[in-house]
Amino acid sequence: AMFARLALCSRLPSRIRQSNGCPASIRAYSQVKFPRPHGKSFAHRSELKQAKRIVVKLGSAVVTRDECGLALGRLASIVEQVAVLQNQGREMMIVTSGAVAFGKQRLRHEILLSQSVRQALHSGQNQLKDMFQSWRQEHAQLLDRAYMFDCSRQIKHCHTLHELLRMNIVPIINTNDAVVPPPVPNSDLQGVNVISIKDNDSLAARLAVEMKADLLIALSDVEGLYDSPPGTDDAKLIDIFYPGDQQSITYGTKSRVGLGGMEAKVKAALWALQGGTSVVIANGTHPKVTGHVITDIVEGKKVGTFFSEVKPAGPTVEQQTEMARHAGRTLASLLPEQRGEIICCLAELLTEKKEEILSANKRDMELAIASGRFSQPMINRLSLSTAKLNSLAIGLRQLAVSSRDSVGRVLRRTRVANNLELEQITVPIGVLLVIFESRPDCLPQVSALAIASGNALLLKGGKEAANTNKILHQLTQEALSIHGVADAIQLVSTREEVEDLCRLDKLIDLIIPRGSSKLVRDIQRAAKGIPVLGHSEGVCHVYVDSEASIDKAIDVVRDSKCDYPAACNAMETLLIHRDLLRTPIFDQIIDMLRTEHVKIHAGPRFASYLTFSPSEVKSLRTEYGDLECCIEVVDSMQDAVDHIHKYGSSHTDVIVTENEETAEQFLQQVDSACVFWNSSSRFADGYRFGLGAEVGISTARIHARGPVGLEGLLTTKWVLRGEGHTVSDFSEQGSMKYLHENIPVPQGSFS
């Protein structure tokens, strides 16, 4: 059902008509060459960005609304997305049958078939025309029932479509004329709100293959393909569907607005896939996603069900998450001593296999440097050394000892009534997702904390540390296997985008980002219904008070800035009391920074005091992550506190002074996760705090704040033990009374 010859001529833009009234491409089709076959379908979603020729099939439920005619809002959004992709240089085609659905809705009231369908068809076509014109995008609506039955005309039709695409015109293939009404119209109206129409999925698939399209997007009123009918308890959306998986699918009833149903869509999709066209089935009716569903699919985002001929060797990330959750529950049920044994085993492996670890890390370093894509701070974070591995092993052994009273510890015990006792106990959060850039030392740290707290763990590291992460994960699973829970920690090594991982709100309980401020901000924006623990920036301050010791000030400033400039707890802004300018303490601090090759940026007030000043800072909220810092002048301790609150990131801030009263005021007033007196900002670390290890530093106001170690990965549950108690026992007519007595909890008490 594509287009009659005369109907086509009347609808095409005038610039491609000939004087005899026939399209140029039909009159001279013998001179037109078919484009070269596009080859195999795409194997991964990320490759969909390369799709040039795209067919968008709009199901009837997408372009119409129950009892409300055309879904104008959806249509406008779809037209906008198609126009945007067309302007990117892609070749877009639309297949739609919505006008018939609209016409049949009206038919329920009129039962005047031919007139109603014509009116609806005309209305729908005009709406699409107006919408495309608003985007200054030329289009051609094509109708021809003969396409489905006359093979000799299909070649001409395909040539015409090629010519339209060549001229940057969007063809809209409208299938209405192919629909044969039921012999008895009333028989199809009984007991339903919206009349069914003929299935056009096979037509869209056929068009996509014959036009050698790279991608077919089939939009309907369901999220994609489920392994069982949507709405049933165990139904799961299938991310990627492979030929041969049909036997694992149980199909439900069809949509109320289409005849074919999901089974017909799958058959059509597999047929198109076999013909070399990639296919995605997705929801085009959901109000939250309709505005970007097509562009999201083309960008490779995890939307709907992607059909692929290439089945990965390993499990999908969803399967990995399920495996981790199952093994994590077993991990949580182990004795504390057994979890400690796993952590000690991992510590031993880090020292025993250090040569293999450092060899893998050397390969990563060489590749990262050769690529030229990474800054020096990123390279520094990527680097491992024998000293780092030894430090990691010490921290893990420390954690193994301290974690023995973590899971199942009784925090509170209450006698609610006689023989009715309530306990609050610590339990794991569930499944953690930790996303980290560079920093391969993060993997054993976080793994050990997950083991100690009984949490399942998904790890997503950067490509730059792929070799190091791989061997560290293998060693982690080797340690876990001594108690049969190797699957509790999974390394995501597929082409999964971080944004897609952040959408797995039904599988993941907490996201912990470890990396640049941009990474953390991106994850916080992308997370859909999953809490994110972390900080987006580490703009740490050191304030040198007018009563500071020269030696302490120099030592604290040097260590805070120069010990490890790439760390999030390194000093980025040095605040100097105004009275210290042009004094020996100030001169010595400046000399020390120059000796350490620290580049200095002057804050606005500091610059005003100088005749020849360093480069003025562009922003007082800058996290340099390198041997650079800003120096600014303040009038008092209170002025320093105000500056920190205005420009800081609530991470770690320091005062250097000999005045105890001033120091205590600073410690109380500064609203940061860590506030120090006469000590380096670099102490803001889980290992240095005695936590054994940390998953990161949180600047959040709830749950966990500062260096997050074992305690930050636990939550609680309430356990009530009774003897047949009922709430009615405590009513006015009941025989029992609430006591609510606190019961002392001995130290180290477990439920």
TrEMBL record:
Its EC number is 2.7.2.11, 1.2.1.41. In the C-terminal section; belongs to the gamma-glutamyl phosphate reductase family. It holds the Pfam family AA_kinase. This is Delta-1-pyrroline-5-carboxylate synthase. One of its GO terms (biological process) is L-proline biosynthetic process. The gene is LOC127350395. GO terms for molecular function: ATP binding; glutamate 5-kinase activity; glutamate-5-semialdehyde dehydrogenase activity. Keywords: Amino-acid biosynthesis, ATP-binding, Cytoplasm, Kinase, Multifunctional enzyme, NADP, Nucleotide-binding, Oxidoreductase, Proline biosynthesis, Transferase. CDD domains: ALDH_F18-19_ProA-GPR.
